[in-house]
Specification:
alpha+beta, two-stranded antiparallel ribbon, globular, 18% helix, 12 strands, ten-stranded antiparallel β-sheet
Length: 295
């Protein structure tokens, strides 16, 4: 029997390689309870594993006044509604980065209309309302040099959930010496509390890059700078629910109109990574520095 020639072997090997390359191997499922897959799981939950996909997380809630005096119940001041638009990217070293920007508008509790001015029941003055326009709001999910920690999941049936509590205390960008009416004091102190809800089947399905998400969000913090309440005792409580939307078009029409006319860049996620992040306090400072008005 004649041995196959080397040329025939090479042809067969080439055909085999072509067949293998033509057949897409299935992606590996995430181990959502492991520390090794925690960052990727969080990106799939919070945004998307596809770096070309922009994802919108919409929220709607109520802003309450918290009294400093004991025995007084919180009072609803206004509604708020907005969204974060994000995309994810994975670097060569395995680091996941979330690039996003976010908008929030305040609404009148009775009419539901977006507020431009607000009759402040605490001070008795009329304030100009400043929208939340934070750009960027970026996050590194598994920063180099830190041990990765598994997400603190709880499970009921197929539903997976966990809570993330973030206590905050740092130097206030609006120091009271410069901003006596807008600053709550030398230190910004508050907290944010997120409760995530998702399907285990969705999270573990490798065909799904962007897992459906429901979210509850609570924040405690000082008076907003534009309320001009200075260091008056008391503060604010935010309570909201959130979910991912399929597209920008699902947002309320009045929000879409304002975005197109005033904030057109918020129709898409940031294209490049920049720092530092922007908060309502640093954004307010930027506006005041531009106008030269600090009193």
């Amino acid at each position: 029997m004649r041995k196959p020639s080397r040329s025939n072997d090479a042809i067969r090997m080439g055909l085999a390689a072509a067949l293998l390359s033509a057949v897409a191997l299935p992606a590996a499922a995430l181990d959502i309870e492991s520390a090794a897959d925690a960052a990727e799981t969080m990106m799939k939950l919070r945004c998307s594993l596809d770096p070309k996909e922009d994802v919108i997380a919409w929220w709607k809630g109520t802003l309450f006044q918290q009294h400093a005096e004991p025995g007084k119940a919180p009072v609803a001041l206004m509604g708020f509604e907005g969204y974060n638009i994000c995309r994810g990217e994975k670097l060569e070293d395995g680091t996941w980065r979330l690039l996003s920007r976010e908008l929030t508008f305040y609404r009148d509790l009775k009419t539901g209309k977006i507020l431009q001015t607000w009759d402040n029941p605490i001070s008795g003055e009329r304030n100009t309302v400043i929208d939340v326009a934070n750009d960027p709001v970026n996050t590194v999910l598994n920063p180099p040099g830190r041990p990765q920690m598994a997400l603190p999941w709880m499970q009921v049936g197929d539903e997976m959930m966990f809570t993330m509590n973030i206590p905050l205390a740092y130097p206030n960008p609006l120091q009271p010496e410069q901003f006596p009416r807008q600053s709550s004091g030398p230190v910004y102190a508050g907290s944010e509390h997120f409760m995530f809800f998702a399907s285990r089947k969705d999270l573990e399905n490798p065909a799904i890059k962007n897992a459906p998400l429901n979210l509850a969000w609570t924040r405690t913090g000082p008076w907003l700078p534009w309320m001009e309440l200075g260091q008056r005792p008391g503060g604010l409580l935010y309570v909201a629910q959130s979910t991912k939307l399929d597209s920008f078009d699902q947002l309320p029409q009045d929000i879409k109109d304002l975005v197109h006319s005033k904030y057109p860049e918020y129709t898409r996620a940031p294209a490049t990574w920049v720092q530092p992040n922007v908060t309502s306090w640093t954004y307010y400072k930027q506006l005041q520095d531009k106008s030269g008005d600090k009193d």
